[in-house]
Please model this.
Amino acid sequence: MFFLGIETSCDETAAAVVAGDRTILSNVILTQLEEHKPYGGGVPEIAARSHLQNLPHIVESALAEAKLDFAELDGVAATAGPGLIGGVMVGLMAAKSIALVHHLPFFAVNHMEAHALTPRLTNDIDFPYLALLVSGGHSQFVAVAGANDHRILGTTMDDAIGEAFDKSANLLDLPYPGGPAIEAAAANGDPTAFDLPRPLKGRPNCDFSFSGLKTAVRKLIERPDTRLEEGSTVADIAASFQAAATEIAADRTRHAIGMFKQIHPEGKTLVVAGGVASNKTLRRELQNVVQAADFNFAAPPLNLCTDNGAMVAWAGIERFNINESSPLDFAPRPRWPLDELGSGSQG
Ligand code: KG4
Ligand code: ZN
Model:
């Protein structure tokens, strides 16, 4: 069984072919970074136009690399939200057209669910598990009990963790996307150089808040005695920021595991997914928390943590396996909370 997956909800134009036995036959990703760099962040109109221009040959390359024709596919999946509406429409329309022309079942995939299910593509993991989704748009804990059974345990009250990385990087004049840039700069810095706040640390629930941390970075940079032109200062601020952000995530995870155990006492695994999951300090901190709680830890390989088509194809396969295809009139959903998943078409 072969599935085509299409991802266009943010700044990656991506298509992949994944087999039912979890073999990734192709995973083609075009990053629009260069086009957005001058603006210090993703620009929706530029993203949509670029998806429109590039998606046809990205899909063709994905099929060519997999050595398959459209006719040999068993299903087509595309991200239907949440994300930037223009890009989502491009991917969704392409997938629907392919499905219609080649008489294939179509699957409208929730982007965050695709991230949350990726560890099942790369590792042998059974439901239920606790997922920590950390990306540019989300920071949330989800109890994943099935391909269509998700309960959000905690989420961010303001910025997403990836957004905090991106905005702090911007303040430090580091390139976009900020996450990898901060991680690289932090490698040469002292994480204890500056005492930055850890909002919500120790609170009983598992919600996040990152805006206070970002503001503290801004105030630190604005101090007259802060010399950003000295590279070591940038490295020290980056390292101190990363230490604070990952310590918050570790603390919130400790609480989330406690909440998850109450609902699913049989659950034993934490999976972390989304772009920020490629941060090595975060992975190390989480591993410590998981060990102390006698849980297992799973994270997709780095290249499957950021946006890609393979995770979308896999989410389609998971849906196929529970007999849930989507109607061809499924409308794009720029906002689509994980616990509002359903197979019906919605506006
Ligand atoms: O999941 P993703 O590729 O796209 C969505 O937001 O859906 O995540 C992108 C986010 C960006 O905020 C980026 O700065 C962050 O993930 N990121 C990282 C790292 N690599 C990517 N954050 C921290 N450390 C990294 N190594
Ligand atoms: Zn993502």
